[in-house]
Design goal:
mainly alpha; two-stranded antiparallel sheet
């Protein structure tokens, strides 16, 4: 019986198959044993006919549409049968070799030693019934806390002695920063500004240009968190040029430097394509106005003939007095938040301390250095204090919008350089205008 070729051949292929060769031993030599159907049966509904050996009757083990191998091993351990694929097939060892020796070491088919991975439970040691008298009983009454073994101590602790007292975690100040480090860094920054200011003025210009470059880098690094990528090279170059122009040529050159910086940034940014161009240019313009343009007023203060160093000194002194008075009053009496959504640690009591300290100190300094009436000096100090606080709040708002605590970690106890320049940058334009009125510049 044959069937058409499923791949398109209309001729029957049953006559083309070679007949299966005879078995090397008769079927009667098979070792009797129970037969259990297993995975040896392979059903092929598309071929209803079975293979028949020449000269043999109907195969008693052949099921309809099933390839069966009745001449395979039929012992108590079923094995997977093999198809009758023609000459050269392997149907197992002779019947005489299938004797299964007794003993646990001959558990595999045809008497070969059993593998350990076939019987993994044979390697498990038996469970021994041991008495439970060794298990200590649980006591219900409370007992003393067990002491650790001698010579060992708990994690995170060290042995204290008279020479080595127990370590304690340092307590943070109420202002949320390391006060000794902040004072030391503040004194060092003041010396870096004041010493060249009075001894070599071009060095002060170099310090100012370096501060502008670092501030631009910190701002550009911070605004990248919002997705904006202002070009850093034209901003730094334009910022240094802006400060130099303000130093040598005054307010008109300062505005020209700002214009050149913005235009240079626009042209530079065109090389990166139109993607996010408006956002990057907006961030670059903000940085150009915030850092180099405002710092240019400090250069113009220092460039005043005869008393430029004193003008810078009274301005910096008013800012320092404002910060110190606000810190002292806020820590001691601060209870009413000034701007909780922008800077939660600022209070109205601290603001009052800032204004009072700056007004008193400026009145004394301007009267002693410029012979200005104390009330005008107090007005100068109040204006500087208000502008410094506004500058601090402005940067706090920028940092909160960007999701950063400090602009960088460049200065221990202060954060970044812009965290110290924020109040000064807003104060120097006010100081330049008020001192131009109170102490006119004599050319």
């Amino acid at each position: 019986m044959s069937h058409p070729d499923p791949y398109g051949n209309t001729e029957s292929r049953g006559w083309d198959r070679p007949a299966a060769p005879a078995l090397p031993w008769p079927d009667t030599d098979l070792e009797p044993g129970p037969w259990r159907p297993g995975p040896a049966a392979h059903t092929h509904p598309a071929e209803p006919d079975t293979y028949a050996r020449p000269g043999a009757g109907p195969d008693p083990y052949a099921a309809p549409d099933t390839y069966a191998a009745p001449d395979t091993y039929a012992g108590p351990y079923p094995t997977t049968s093999r198809h009758h694929d023609g000459p050269g097939r392997y149907d197992g060892p002779p019947a005489g070799d299938r004797a299964r020796p007794d003993g646990p070491e001959h558990d595999g088919p045809w008497g070969e030693p059993a593998r350990d991975d076939e019987y993994p439970t044979a390697q498990i040691a038996p469970v021994r019934d041991e008495p439970t008298d060794q298990i200590p009983a649980v006591r219900d009454e409370p007992g003393p806390t067990p002491e650790p073994p001698a010579g060992r101590r708990g994690p995170g602790r060290r042995r204290a002695s008279a020479e080595r007292p127990p370590t304690t975690a340092p307590k943070a100040s109420r202002a949320g920063r390391n006060l000794p480090a902040a004072i030391g860094v503040g004194v060092a920054l003041g010396a870096a500004v004041v010493v060249p200011l009075f001894f070599f003025m071009p060095a002060f210009l170099a310090v100012l240009a370096a501060a502008v470059g670092i501030g631009i880098w910190e701002m550009a690094r911070a605004v990248r968190r919002s997705g904006a990528h202002p070009p850093l090279a034209p901003l730094v170059a334009g910022g240094v040029i802006t400060v130099g122009l303000a130093w040598y040529a005054g307010p008109d050159a300062l505005c020209l430097g700002l214009l050149v910086t913005v235009l240079g940034t626009m042209i530079w940014r065109l090389g990166d394509g139109p993607g996010n161009y408006q956002r990057d240019l907006t961030a670059a313009t903000l940085i150009a106005v915030y850092v180099p343009f405002l710092a240019g007023f400090a250069a113009m203060l220092a460039a005043a003939p005869d008393d430029g160093a004193l003008r810078v000194l009274v301005t910096l002194a008013a800012v320092v007095l404002s910060d110190t008075g606000g810190y002292a009053a806020g820590v001691s009496f601060g209870k009413h938040p000034m701007a909780p959504t922008i800077s939660p640690k600022k209070s109205w009591e601290g603001f009052a301390g800032s204004v009072t300290a700056a007004a008193a100190g400026s009145a004394a300094l301007l009267w002693a250095l410029f012979d200005v009436a104390p009330w005008w000096g107090a007005l100068f100090g109040m204006a500087i204090s208000v502008s410094a606080v506004l500058g601090d709040l402005a940067e706090s708002m920028i940092k909160r919008d960007l999701g950063v605590k400090d602009m960088s970690n460049l200065l221990p106890g202060h954060g970044g350089l812009m965290d110290r320049l924020d109040s000064i940058l807003f104060a120097v334009p006010v100081a330049y205008l008020l001192l131009a009125v109170f102490v006119p510049v004599v050319s």
